[in-house]
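Treating backbone geometry as a discrete language has practical consequences that deserve illustration. Part of our work consisted of pairing the sequence of a single chain with a tokenised description of its backbone. We regard such an encoding as a compact summary of how the chain folds. The amino acid sequence and the backbone structure tokens for this protein are reproduced below.
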Amino acid sequence: MDSNGSAHGNQDTIKSDEEQYLEQDFTSSELGTKEYWDDVYQRDLRTYKDIGDVGEIWFGEESMHRVIKCLRKENVPADAAVLDIGTGNGSLLVELAKSGFTNLTGIDYSAAAVELAKNVLEQDDLSNIKVEEVDFLSCAGTLTGFDVCIDKGTFDAISLNPDSAADGKAHYLKALQGALTQGGLFLITSCNWTKEQLLHFFRQGFAFHRELPTPSFMFGGKTGHSVTALAFKRVQ
């Protein structure tokens, strides 16, 4: 304690607690495994072929409209190269195409998801949109030149991997830096990570650009958000 009565040890503890919060990992889950998502999309593919139901839209339709509204606000050109990371059933690609974007690519590491997305796109006469079976964590240096990268839940799933969440997040960051052009826009929607945690993780190579509005709730006199949606720009 100094002459003013300040306890430096307590200040260090507070800083350490804050760092632990910003860098904490979640309890691992089957939602972080490829096997889980292969099973999900194999079922969704069978359902689609049987009754034409495309399956769940992660974070709901409002999440897609939120992304498109942001792209318009940023005056992103219609021919900008856009990458949908973890495209799933391809619903976001459909909405982007209907909104006038013409240079779209979707990737997913599940072969069943890719087949489902191609079927959904073909149904809407959008078979010209590229959808590929790609593991984003293993593609550093092979996916390049995108003006916009969009993630709705993929980073969340990677963070839940029971085997290598920390390595997965590091590979994700490297792949994202390689895929996005200098000054390119990265839009991420997460239900696991807070704004502060995402700002901390993407602080290397990216600059916070804006927060996208998401539904809020009130609990214990405080306002919170069940979903976080942020826009970053690649700076290095």
About this structure: The chain has eight helices and nine strands. The first strand starts at residue 81 and ends at 85. Residues 1-9, 217-225 have pLDDT under 50 and may be disordered.
